[in-house]
């Protein structure tokens, strides 16, 4: 248990341990623009509900947020639509890779959860219908919550994904055939790839996740989600946020968490703090190797977990 008034010492200890740790995985190579990152890079930040932020390593280095953004689009759309959203996307772990197609046919075009690609496409589609610019609404939200007006899209990453987007296109077309996509598929894919391409640092993303530690309340004190909805988002992160490794993540880390193939992972200790760790080397399920290890050490060293 840490009794320290700040999280700085525990962050420094984790960074030191990670430096000595062998085996960092490999950067995502299915998006060529991400493949060049050195798996040895590492940063980690912790934000308290009042906006105090601690960091270590490359905690201010922007990286490709990728699927971490799926938490924020879910929250934005749940706030707009409420429970009706769950008629279009489930909330059960899929036990399958993030880009899998296999369950969609026998489950009638309703994706298992909002964090696999199929589910995120449904959420972004619905957010786009209601806002006219889903990726723009997401960027505005992230800028406001992080306090960083410079956050932006990385056009090269979005273009790289578009050029290699056959699988996401297949998912979107397949769901459209079941009537579960409202916008033209090319429009939806453009929004989704822009969403994934947002560049943000560990500090930015730890701060932007703060509303989930504050039980739904935004940085400016206004409410985005009801307390119950914030609990729901945290629960879906715990059970589905790391795809077919969600059981292992819950076992090792014991926190709601969401990974992205850029190597970022966000995590929430409700009522206490939010975390973001970045290291570009991934395991075979698309989760950052050093990121999961660092969060594992955090909950072990501090005793802060939801269990
Ligand atoms: O849809 C994709 O392939 C990516 N843009 C996002 C995937 C992702 O980050 C999955 N995460 N682990």
From TrEMBL:
InterPro entries linked to this entry: Beta-lactam/transpept-like, Glutaminase
What keyword terms does UniProt attach to this protein? Acetylation, Hydrolase
Q: What is its EC number?
A: 3.5.1.2
Q: Which residues form a coiled coil?
A: none
Database matches in Pfam families: Glutaminase
Where, in this chain's numbering, is substrate bound?
67, 117, 161, 168, 192, 243, 261
Protein family (similarity comment):
Belongs to the glutaminase family.
Subunit details: Homotetramer.
| Annotated protein name in UniProt | Glutaminase
